[in-house]
Every structure is written in C-alpha cells, then in structure tokens.
Amino acid sequence: MTRKDRIDAAGAFALVGFSLLLAFNQVVIRVVNEGLQPVFFAGMRSVGVVLCLWLWFAVRRRPLGLKRKNLFFGCLMGTLFALEFVFLFVALDLTTVSRTSVLFNTMPLWMALLAHVFIPGERITRVKAVGQLLAFLGAAVAIFWRGDSGEGALLGDLLALLGAIGWATLALIARTGLKDVSPDRQLFWQVLVSAPILLVAAVFFGPFVRELEPIHLWGLAFQIVVVVTFGFSFWLWLLGIYPAASVAAFSFLVPVFGVFLGWWLLDEALGLPILVALALVCMGLVLINRPSQVPQKV
User: Does the residue 194 lie in any domain?
Assistant: First the structure.
C-alpha cells in the first residue's frame, strides 16, 4: 500500500462518499428506532459486526486476540464504544437527525482538547483555538437556541454531545493505549466487548421490539454490513494511504450532509438556529483539522 502526501481526486471522492454514508447512517438509525428499541438495536448491531469481523479474520487467517498488556485498554474501548452508541442511538430517538448530526460531529473539538493534554506534540495552536471556539459556540447555539423544541429534544441534544465526547475519548485510547494494535482488531474488540454490555443495558430501556417491519430489519443489516464492517474498514484503509490530518478535514462534511438528509428524507425543519449552528461547527472543524504550518529550514 503506497502512502501519499496529499489527497488526490480519487481520495477526495472516496472521503466525500464516506462522509455522505455517515450522514445517511444517522437517518437509518432514526428509522430503525421506530421498529427496535435503540439500545437493543445497538447491541444487535454489535453482535452482527462481531460475526462479520470474525469471518473476515478467519478468511485471512489472522489472530483476533490481544496481548495481555493490551487487554485492559481493549475492554475499556469496548465499554466506551457501548456508551457512545447508547448516547447516539437514544439521542436519535429523542431529537432530530439535523441536530444530532451537528452536535455529534463536534467530536474533533473534544479530541483536540484531549490530545492537547495527553498526547505529546499535539498542542493547540491559535488557529485551532479559534476553531474550537467556533465549534463550541455552534454546539451552544444548537442546544440553547431551540425554537419550538421540547424537553425530550433537549435531552436528546445533550446525549448527542455526550456521544461526541465518548467518541473522542475512544479515539484518544486508540492513539495511546492501543497504538500498536491494528485498527480492524481494535474495531473487533470494541464490538465484542460492547455487545453484551448493550444487550444487558437494553433491559432497562423498555420493550425490545416496537412496531417492527421489514424496513427496520433491512436497516439493521445495512448498519452491520455496510456502515460498520465495510464502511469503517474502508475509512481505516484510507487513513493508511492519506495524511491523517487531511482525512480528518473531511469530517466537516458529515453535519452538512446530515442536516440536508434530515430535511430531504425526514421532512425536518431547517430553522435559523440549526443553520447558524451548522455554519459555526463546520468553520470550527475546518480550522481544528487544518495542518500546522512547519517552517522550512534554510
């Protein structure tokens, strides 16, 4: 696999497509929540992905286990993965795709803050600090400038924000505690540990099945096979080819696509608050993901 020092046309097309997939994924979650309880849905998704990844590793004859020194962090990542998706799936049950997409995709803001503290060399520059301020203001606008949204939607917004923080914490552990473990093995342990946690937690969130129809089962299958197993693996493959900062910069497209798809497919209203929040978050993410300028030696 040849490394490249910049995003070419093929890479840009692939990353735009992946951003669109992540945004559409939130629409799928919202729809499937109508037929399956959100936490049970997340648990069944983890079970399905475990089976798919086990088959993937078996075909390639690769080991699945972790070294003893990595077991703690592997279990911790799986627990955080479970919490992240409890927050996200329940958020999409309570609030709109548009609002969830804006708030959940503030993840780079929290990741930059954590990296500043815990990862040597990942200091916050002035440009990134401005980006963080803009993204934070965007999240604040989405939460506090609510229009006609109710109390349940407010809880959903806060859960989406907690999901973003959980995602950032998980990414931090991947960069530090499990940096010597391949990404696909990290993903396997995330879903392996999260599956029983989610299924046990689902007992406390009401009946497992709501008004189940075939479209909800198709949505579950789409989540398992397309989004997590192939989608996340494809993204990790792109990360191995292109510069990480350049790949991350495309994350600002996810809330843009999410707001658009929520309006187009689910008839969600596009009021001034969500558009202002979207603009602030996207500008912030662009600045946060902007590569640092390293002066050339003369």
Answer: yes
Does residue 240 sit within a domain?
Answer: yes
DSSP state letter for 179: T
Report the domain count for the chain: 1
Q: What is the DSSP string of 1-59?
A: ----SS--HHHHHHHHHHHHHHHHHHHHHHHHTTTB-HHHHHHHHHHHHHHHHHHHHHH
Structural domain boundaries enclosing 165: 9-103+158-268
Select from 179, 130, 142, 140 the least CA-distant residue to 289: 130
- At 209 the three-state DSSP class reads strand
pLDDT in tens, 17-51: 999 999 999 999 999 999 999 999 999 999 999 99
| This prediction's pTM | 0.88
Is the residue at 202 inside a domain? Answer: yes
